Each structure stands twice: as structure tokens, then as C-alpha cells.
Amino acid sequence: MQLRKMMVMLAAVSTMSLALTACGDDATTAETCTSDTDCSSGFCNTAAGVCMETCESASECPDTEKECAPLAGATNTAKVCQCKTNQLCNEDDSTSLVCGTVSKRCEEPGTSTGCTKDADCTTGNTCDTASGQCKPAATTCSGEGKATCAYGSACYNNACSAPPAPTCENYNNFSNKAALGTTGPIIFKAATTSAAVDSFCDASAPKRVKITISAYSSTPFPATAAELNGFLYVLVNGTTRTPVVSSSAGNYVVTGTNRERADIVANICVAADSKTTSLGYYFTGGNFFCFQSSYN
């Protein structure tokens, strides 16, 4: 009798296990593959190198990958479960998953199958948006700004490197270093444009110094300087101020296919006999750029 009860219980547990396996509520970890024969489902997404679950209807798919359809570009025409949006990938309370651009699976950002921008990739890698894959960043480059360098670096003398590390007193006395980072706009260059006594400034500090700050961003810069958010400069004593940018033409120039570069002419008023000024510039979430402006 005891043996019979045990066998009944084991059968019930086995049935429950099968039922749970069949439920489509949670996405599973993707198997890697190079061909359909590598996958228990019989379907390999060869572009991403991951196995996919076959289906006949969306009801058979996890809530996070609820589209049941043939995979675009695949030679295997079977229907498979696919993700649609990052939001749906995080329905199970996760907040870090993305819908893979190539894999069509929910996955951690920065994997080789789901990037849409450099920020999705690990340090030292850039996103090939054509394939959705993170690849090692170039070490050589041409031009200036981000060019083909990893996010956070810039092109200097045909080589990718980080902008100069901040060592000025402005940075040393700056108390809000937590506002800095590597994902915000990156300042890669600053230059003194002009310096002259100008009615733009008060009589107590009549010389107007124009400094052009060049930066790139992973998101488009706004249409006007007035819409810039989190762009600040720091005095030698660590005090933070908002740069004054004239609204006249040429003082705020945004370029690039995705409006990713901005050249901003910031103004500062100094004493008539001033010859040099130490400044620090930064965008919230970006780097701190020290600049010693010298002029006549």
C-alpha cells in the first residue's frame, strides 16, 4: 500500500513538472548554436548564434517574447517566439533586459546580439548598429570627436584616447563629482575664440572672453542652446555656474546625422587686464574638462 501511494505521488509530481515546463510565462536562457541541429527546438537563429523556441501561436510563447512568427531573414521558415519591445522584456519585474536587435530574445544589454547604441556595450566596445553586435572599438581614427572611437574616448592625432584627465583646481575643489560619469555628453575639446572689451559685460569686468566647447552625445542635442540641460562650468573655488550662450547665429552649432555633436560658444566676463582664466566644463553624466583660457 505504501509503495502504491509513493508511486501515485511521484506520478503527480512528474505531471506538475511537465505542466510547469509547458507554461509560457517566463523566458528561458538561450542556448548557443551554429545550426538547427544544435537546438532541442530544431531552430537556430544563425545570425545571433542562439536557439529559438518554435510555436504555432502566441499562446505558446513566454509573455516577454509573445510574437509567434517566422524569423525575418532566416532560411528556416518555422514560426518562433520573438520579443517586440524592451518594455515587454521587463514584465517579470526585471528592469535591465533589452529586446535583442538580431537575436529577437530578451537579453542583458551589451551582449553580442542586442545593441542599438554604444552605451549598450561594455567598455572598449562600440555598437555596430547594422548588425546589432558589440565589437571592439577602433584604436585608430580620422577627424575629431567620437569618430569611430568607443563612447567616452575621442579622436586625437588619428588615435582614439580618453579626453585629458581633469587635474585643475576647479576639479579638485568641485564637490559634486557624483554628477559626472561616462554616459552623458562627452566634452573633447575647448578653445578660446576671442577676448575683447564688450558692452555685453558689466564695467566691473568689461572683457568678454568667448570659449568654444565641443562635445558629442549618444542622444541628439536640442535645437537651441536654451534647451541644453545639465551643461555647467566650474570656477577655481569649485562654484558651479550655468554658461551664458548668446542666441545669435554661430554660437550654438549642432551637426551630425543624429545631431550628435555640438559646438557651444560660452561667454565669461573678466577684468580688463586679465590675461588668463581657469575653467572647468561638464555635462551631467559626462566628463569634467579643464581648460586654461589665455588671451590678450
Could you provide a short overview of the structure?
The chain has 296 residues and is mainly beta.
Task: Provide structural commentary.
Keywords: Signal. With 296 residues, this protein is mainly beta. It folds into two domains: 19-134, no CATH class; 169-294, Sandwich (Immunoglobulin-like), CATH 2.60.40. It has three helices and 18 strands. The strands form seven sheets. It has a four-stranded antiparallel beta sheet with strand order 11-12-16-15, with no helix packed on it. A four-stranded antiparallel beta sheet has the order 14-13-17-18. A two-stranded antiparallel sheet has the order 1-2. Strand 3 (67-70) and strand 4 form a beta hairpin. The N and C termini lie far apart (103 Å). Residues 1-28 have low confidence and may be disordered.
Regarding CATH, which class of the largest domain?
Mainly Beta
Strand-residue fraction?
25-35%
Q: N- to C-terminal separation? A: 103 Å
Give the fraction of residues assigned to helices.
under 10%
CATH architectural grouping of the largest domain: Sandwich
Q: Strand order across the biggest sheet?
A: 11-12-16-15
Q: Which of globular, elongated, flat, extended, rod-shaped describes the shape?
A: elongated
How many domains comprise the coordinates?
Answer: 2
Overall strand count: 18
CATH topology tier name of the largest domain: Immunoglobulin-like
What is the radius of gyration computed over CA atoms, rounded to a whole number of angstroms?
Answer: 28 Å
Structural class: mainly beta
Supply the number of helical segments.
3
The secondary-structure element order is: HEEEEHEEEEEEHEEEEEEEE
The description of the largest β-sheet is: 4 strands, antiparallel
Extract low-pLDDT stretches.
1-28
